[in-house]
């Protein structure tokens, strides 16, 4: 009986944590760490890539941090990886190389990151 209660409480806690960290409940600027195979939701951008045993194995970076850009005021600038297109209302103002934005096993020094500006 006690084991059943503990298991039920653990399931509720895990569900609450998962729901609390979902992109639907995020505030502007919030970040979330996900596996690289997870699609970046609308209004969000990738801001960093790395390898994590929790997301599989291999040489390709398989984990990423995503950032919510919805709700920022016009004129705000943020840095983002070039692995996703900027959301509507955001414009690329410059591009550059960032080691934190390497999302391929084949490294290069080509521009892979952007400075984005909220324009509308």
UniProtKB/TrEMBL annotation:
Signal peptide start and end residues = 1-26
This protein's record includes keyword Signal: yes
What keywords sit in the KW lines? Signal
Which protein are we looking at?
A: Secreted protein
Q: What is the lineage of its organism?
A: Bacteria, Bacillati, Actinomycetota, Actinomycetes, Kitasatosporales
